[in-house]
Specification:
The protein is mostly beta strands. It folds into 2 domains: 78 residues, no CATH class; 56 residues. The protein has 2 helices and 9 strands. The longest helix is centred in the N-terminal third of the chain and has 19 residues.
């Protein structure tokens, strides 16, 4: 006859547990963050510094005045066409080359060449799930005392996805079991 109340209590606990956990499960919300980054290559490239070639003209010397002037050579150099190619930029971002044709001290033809290299665009999506949508299991110890006895227990605590908490404890000194259920209390935010 002593076992009947305990059997009723255990049966009621099982019924309460099944009623709470066998309901339709609410879907967990997931937060999605999307970060888009443009990545540029940061490899340094050598910078070419052009030093002009210095041409010294001797205007005060008398030794060159006795030389004859070669007018046809000067005129052929003046009317000749010279082709120059200059690289303005050559790195991971672009290649820029300018080609010039010069005659009679003027630019008679200019041809730019431009090649732009594409950048890498990386899109990263982070999906965060709320911490309350995960099952958790905790282990701990507890100590207590009433007027007559002292108690020391080992406990297991289980949290469900619906944030229901169940606890099972065993008191090693008094050799007794404890089963607990906890409900979340929601307060209105104003």
């Amino acid at each position: 006859m002593k076992q009947v109340p305990w059997s009723i209590i255990v049966a009621l606990l099982v019924i309460i547990f099944l009623q709470r956990e066998c309901k339709h499960e609410t879907p967990c919300t997931k937060e999605t963050e999307t970060h888009i980054d443009t990545i540029h290559d940061t490899v340094p490239y050598p910078v070419l510094r052009y030093l002009p070639k210095l041409i010294y003209k001797d205007t005060g010397s008398v030794r060159w005045r006795s030389q004859p002037v070669d007018t046809p050579a000067i005129l052929s150099a003046f009317f000749a066409r010279y082709f120059y190619k200059d690289t303005l930029l050559n790195d991971t971002n672009a290649l820029i080359v300018v080609s010039d044709t010069i005659s009679r001290n003027q630019i008679i033809y200019r041809s730019p060449f431009l090649r732009i290299y594409p950048h890498i665009i990386r899109q990263t999506t982070y999906i965060k799930q709320k911490a309350s949508c995960r099952r958790k299991l905790f282990f701990g110890i507890g100590a207590g005392r009433n007027f007559n006895r002292f108690g020391l227990s080992a406990s297991l605590l289980y949290t469900t996805k619906k944030e229901h908490v169940y606890s099972f404890s065993y008191d090693v000194l008094n050799k007794s079991f404890y089963v607990s259920m906890y409900w979340k209390i929601k307060f209105s935010h104003r």
